[in-house]
């Protein structure tokens, strides 16, 4: 039986992904609200092949207005937002039932598993589902925020759901095809002109510049976001992500002293955030200071002790508390001549299908047989 859910999808030039998106969700919901914002490729044709009613609305440089239009067209009792370059995980179909338990003023956060342009897998939680109630709306040009207005006060409570979406929009091919980061940057800068002290927008500006490898610009905006959130960080759920992203930016620029200072502050606030320790390891490797080399296996072992980052609390890169930590321990022990330890950690990493570890294992076996 299908559920009383309207899935709202905004799309523009998504012929590469739209069929997979629609196939993953159509069997489970009563309605698809598909809004095309100006596709020049076969996106609309493919959507109609899936018997989806395609509505057209001209793109106006404002994601919130587009999303609010989609919401206004929804007829079912609950709404779920999806991007056309996303796919519902096959294991999440049963969890869609959780949406139907949401009450007034509540919204559901789902897990987004993104394949990124450096072949890592990033995991985050994003608000995507809520009751179909006119008091819900989106605000902001980009990276828009869902709000619920009651008695002239914005208030909303968030519930983590067992729904997982795979996101393919930040793979290298997709970014090149759609110039996504340039589009995002244009909108973020427009919003920055409207509110120069919007800490979340500053954070997203910094992250977008980081993706574009414009590290000096990224550092500037991320430090501004950090300054605005540091004194009362508990009120800003993205504060930990500012720290992690800024850490990667400083690492790319080899600004080690600033990075070590930042990470020290970070782990004092978030002692269970494995990603911060993994960034520290990468810094130790890149710095190549002989006096610090011995710290590498110690920190990697601590990453394994902490385990994978809790994605209910933080954004994370998959593997920092498991296969990536094992792989890097394997590299360390191989380079220091401890082949059995290297093999042990490569095997642990390879068991989770991490291809670099599988390659190193084969290389070790080949060298041993010669």
Main traits of this protein?
about 375 residues, alpha/beta, Spore Coat Polysaccharide Biosynthesis Protein SpsA, Chain A, Serine Threonine Protein Phosphatase 5, Tetratricopeptide repeat, three-stranded antiparallel sheet, about 45% helix, TPR_rpt, TPR repeat
Task: Summarize the topology.
Elements lengths: L2 E9 L6 H8 L3 E8 L6 H7 L4 E3 L6 H11 L4 E6 L2 E3 L17 E10 L5 E11 L4 E4 L5 E6 L2 E2 L2 E11 L4 H7 L1 H15 L4 H13 L3 H15 L9 H14 L3 H14 L4 H14 L7 H12 L9 E2 L5 H13 L3 H12 L4 H15 L1
Parallel strand pairs: 1-2, 1-4, 2-3, 6-11
Antiparallel strand pairs: 4-7, 5-11, 6-7, 7-12, 8-9, 9-10
Number of helices: 14
CATH class of the largest domain: Alpha Beta
Task: Report the β-strand fraction as a percent range.
Answer: 15-25%
Instruction: Tell me the number of strands.
Output: 12
Mean pLDDT over all positions: 93
Shape: globular
C-alpha-based Rg, rounded: 22 Å
**In this structure, how is the largest beta sheet organized?**
9 strands, mixed
Instruction: Tell me the number of structural domains.
Output: 3
Return the CATH architecture of the largest domain: Alpha-Beta Complex
Gap from first CA to last CA: 61 Å
The low-confidence runs, each spanning 5 or more residues with pLDDT under 50, are none
Question: CATH topology of the largest domain, anyone?
Answer: Spore Coat Polysaccharide Biosynthesis Protein SpsA, Chain A
Give the SSE order as H and E letters: EHEHEHEEEEEEEEHHHHHHHHEHHH
CATH superfamily of the largest domain, by name, is Spore Coat Polysaccharide Biosynthesis Protein SpsA, Chain A
Helix content: 40-55%
Structural class: alpha/beta
